[in-house]
Amino acid sequence: MGWLFAALRSFPIRSFAMTPLRQRMLEDMGVRNLAPNTQSAYLKQVSAYARYFDCSPDELGPEQVRAYQVYLTQTRKLTPSTVSVATGALRFLYKVTLKRAWAVEEIPMPKRSFKLPVVLSREEVSQFLASVDHLMHRTILMTAYAAGLRVSEATHLKVSDIDSQRMVLRVDQGKGRKDRYVMLSPRLLEALRVYWKSARPTLWLFPGDVPGQPITRNAVGLACQKARRACGIRKPITPHSLRHAFATHLLESGTDVRTIQLLLGHRSLATTSRYLKVATSTVCATTSPFDLLPKVVVDPPQPSPPVHF
């Protein structure tokens, strides 16, 4: 965790950088075991908030929070998801670190729009993976699809996480700081063995350019975009698209939602249930009530008699 503290203290922002308040917030997040990415995002958002007013956050109140949210939505025109991160950071600061009684009530969380994921067909997944020309990049994207992994989970796989005896992959500290096991496909195991014989990784299954560190999410994303251009598929494709395809294809093949929830590592079944809305087995295969109506024989309209003046 030493790298995290060093990185978080490196923001060159006035009014919040290198202050006791910043240190206390960092400690509060550490005590609650928030993920490193969450800690980094929260401190970055609070730093931007302090810089906007050029004032320490403990001297600001509900009116300034409201003004800042208006600035983010109307002036900067940020998405509700981005504003939600800033809102979560300010809620944590004022409720947990500064213990202000008004924190949650006075800081509204923006309502996010619900969008269904664009799902690749099985043929499109195969076409896409065949277009990845780099062995390690192709193997990590295969793994993301075959096991339904988040990109951060795929990049942080270790060689020791492969259990070919039980045919499972261990996901160590996935989202929400939770471990889980996912299936190890026989076909994926074969691909991983081919990759291992070529790359000979020791610690990280997919090592990055920096010695001792895994491949970065950005590197996987760039490889994904390169393959998308090469394969000619018009749909947007990101590493997370493969996770969407994994869940949808399982559902279409008859796997129950609860099992898919466990494989994906979703905390809420409602999150997994959204795939019911894009699975053709549940949407397109459902009979419309229109098709069940009794057939009614309708006589063709008779031509109108000519009108004479």
CATH topology of the largest domain: hpI Integrase, Chain A
Q: Widest sheet: strand order?
A: 1-2-3
The run of helices and strands is HHHHHHHHHEEEHHHHH
Rounded to the nearest angstrom, the radius of gyration is 26 Å
Number of helices: 14
Highest CATH level, the class of the largest domain: Mainly Alpha
Q: Poorly predicted ranges (pLDDT <50, ≥5 residues)?
A: 1-14
The dominant shape is: globular
CATH superfamily of the largest domain: Intergrase catalytic core
Largest sheet, described in full? 3 strands, antiparallel
Average pLDDT confidence is 85
The CATH architecture of the largest domain can be named as Orthogonal Bundle
Number of DSSP strand runs: 3
Instruction: Classify the secondary structure makeup into a structural class.
Output: mainly alpha
User: What percent of residues are in strands?
Assistant: under 5%
N- and C-termini, Cα separation:
96 Å
For this structure, the quaternary state is single chain
Question: Can you walk me through this structure?
Answer:
The model is unreliable at about 1-15 (pLDDT under 50). The chain is globular, with a radius of gyration of 26 Å. It has two domains: about 1-105, DNA polymerase, domain 1; about 120-275, Orthogonal Bundle (hpI Integrase, Chain A), CATH 1.10.443.10. The protein has helices at about 1-10, 20-30, 35-55, 60-75, 80-95, 105, 120-130, 135-145, 150-155, 185-200, 215-230, 240-250, 255-265, 270-275; strands spanning about 160-165, 170-175, 180-185. It is built from 14 helices and three strands. About 30% of the residues are buried. By secondary structure, the protein is mainly alpha-helical. It has a three-stranded antiparallel sheet with strand order 1-2-3. It is about 50% helix and about 5% strand.
